[in-house]
Amino acid sequence: MDAISLLALLFLFFAGVAGQCDNVKVLQEWQGNYQAEFRDNAPKDIDGLRLELSFQSRVLRLELQKGSVEQVDDFTFIITDPALKVSAGEEVWYLIQVYYYFTFPQVVKNVMNDELLCEDNTLTTPEPMVNPCDATGMKPHDYAQVLCMSYVFYEAQRSGPLPADQRVTWRGDSALDDGSDVGHDLSGGYYDAGDHVKFGFPMAFTTTMLGWGLVDFLEGHQEAGQEKYGLAAIKWATDYFLKAHTDTYEFYGQVGSGGPDHAYWGRPEDMTMDRPSYKIDATNGGTELAGETAAALAVASVAFQESDAAYASALLDHAKQLYDFADKYRKNYHDSIPDASAFYRSWNGYGDELCWAALWLAKATGDDQFIEKAKAHWEEFDLTKDSVAQFSWDDKRAGVYALFYNLTSDTQYLDLLNVYLDWLKSGATYTPEGLVHLDAWGANRHAANVAFISLWAAKHGIDGKKNREWARGQIGQLLGDNSRYERSFVVGYGQNPPERPHHRSSSCPFPPSDCHFGLLQPGPNVHTLYGALVGGPSQNGEYEDDRQDYVRNEVACDYNAAFTAALAALVEIS
Ligand SMILES: *[C@@H]1O[C@H](CO)[C@@H](O)[C@H](O)[C@H]1NC(C)=O
């Protein structure tokens, strides 16, 4: 053992002892519980014991050999034993069994019949985070507040070194060595969902949608005071994409491996598994990935044009290169990054991403050559050949119709968009509550995605009233207009919101941490994951606030993306 480890051990030893009341001694320890004895002299004559014990961290329950126990809160318990009689100075001895989920709960205070015997203030529990978006005078649906909270959620998903203005205070720096396996700095970007893989494809779609929402619903953002948070949320991803674009035809599209990452339930700050970096290049192309990232960077360049022209221009250069890369070395990205296959395989191919990227470049540059390219992709891949159901990280066709129409005013695209919007209202499946149900996995997110398309259409003069009111109803379902559940599906917002999202970092306590109960413990997540939209109900309307149900109760960057944009739209029109 070297001197440093010895010092560390000594430190841990003393740190451990310092917080304990020494009239309580641990006798035996098991996983998740321990037995201890309380031994002290009675400070006065006792006729009936009343012993109050306070613990430093959360206790699940306390068991005794005799007497009875009352739980005051998660940290404080009162033991009463009316039969116990001792005179002042005589010893009182009690055996306790302490059950807990996470951090070993040391006794930091005890009071016997109103006399303080021990109090140790050296160990303090960090203050819980407060909602930075708490508005006074909340309206029935305070879209501005939820918009604000949605951006807070993105701060909870941040990977890499965190800035001083980080509002999610229970997060810390993590995954600082990402990319070290390939000699690049790939720190930063977003953790995908309840896990800690940085999946580039959905991260890029998330960024495109946040960008679209900010650019086309800037007024809504400004009205809610959220423009700067919108830019920050986009930049957190685009800074990472610029780093990941290591050469003209080389782009890192994933850090972390699904299997080992998902097998770990803990905080990203404490991860120790290998986090391999995966790339696409001229030999192994990745058209969907490069195309979607090009789209994200192009729309981001529009978003940053006003406030930071130099950054906007760097984003646009990379966007053009990545689009060229996507087009030139065509290949399904999951064949080049097979680790993504089980999670974000591109099911519908790359024709839509090529078209979508070219359209966003047309929007960002005003250069008609990109419209011509988009038209060529449209024809080549015959993007009208099957009907469209979802608008998602995989399938961008509904967005392609909207953008094409916006850029060309050509009614063939408008007609397709209208057919789709009509189908959503009268042809699609709904839950009994009235939520459009496009997928069992993350139904809420799919409803939010199409609500955004509908709100975008309304703003652009397409069947305004109908599209707006339908979308308002869908977002309303997510915010609590659902008589079956009478709940909001946004963590920390509205009535009866989910408290147990399938999300590792919010379900684990601060260090020193041990999160082996994080997934299974039945109580709420340790931290409130403000602003996260959970997966949502099944087709027949079933939903439970159950952390183990990752189909209906996970959260993800892509779940909140178009949702954020839709909220900005609703702020704008309400
Ligand atoms: C395209 O979008 C811009 C920005 O929202 C808008 O000003 C313009 O009117 C739109 N054009 C069409 C044809 O919808």
List key phrases describing it:
alpha+beta; Glycosyltransferase; 4-stranded antiparallel sheet; Immunoglobulin-like; binds 2-acetamido-2-deoxy-beta-D-glucopyranose; 19 helices; 5-stranded antiparallel sheet; 574 residues
List the helices and strands and how they pair.
Elements (H helix, E strand, L loop, with lengths): L2 H16 L5 E7 L2 E9 L4 E10 L5 E4 L3 E4 L4 E11 L4 E9 L7 E6 L2 E5 L23 H14 L41 E2 H17 L1 H6 L3 H18 L5 E6 L2 H6 L13 E5 L5 H18 L4 H20 L4 H4 L4 H4 L6 H15 L2 H13 L16 H12 L2 H16 L16 H17 L4 H16 L24 H4 L42 H4 L3 H17 L1
Antiparallel strand pairs: 1-2, 2-7, 3-6, 3-8, 4-7, 5-6, 8-9, 10-11, 11-12
Helix pairs in contact: 2-19, 3-5, 3-7, 3-19, 5-7, 7-8, 7-11, 8-11, 11-12, 11-13, 13-14, 15-16, 15-19
The structure holds 2-acetamido-2-deoxy-beta-D-glucopyranose.
The site of 2-acetamido-2-deoxy-beta-D-glucopyranose (NAG) has 4 residues, from loops.
Give an overview of the whole structure.
With about 575 residues, the protein is of the alpha+beta class. The chain folds into two domains: about 5-120, Immunoglobulin-like (Sandwich), CATH 2.60.40.290; about 145-574, Glycosyltransferase (Alpha/alpha barrel), CATH 1.50.10. It is about 40% helix and about 15% strand. The chain has helices at about 5-20, 145-155, 200-215, 220-225, 225-245, 260-265, 285-305, 310-330, 335, 340-345, 350-365, 370-380, 395-410, 410-425, 445-460, 465-480, 505, 550-555, 555-574; strands spanning about 25-30, 35-40, 45-55, 60-65, 70, 75-85, 90-100, 105-110, 115-120, 200, 250-255, 275-280. It has a five-stranded antiparallel beta sheet, with no helix packed on it. It has a four-stranded antiparallel beta sheet with strand order 1-2-7-4, with no helix packed on it. A hairpin with a 4-residue loop joins strand 5 and strand 6 (about 75-85). Residues about 1-20 have low confidence and may be disordered. It binds 2-acetamido-2-deoxy-beta-D-glucopyranose (NAG). 2-acetamido-2-deoxy-beta-D-glucopyranose binds next to loops.
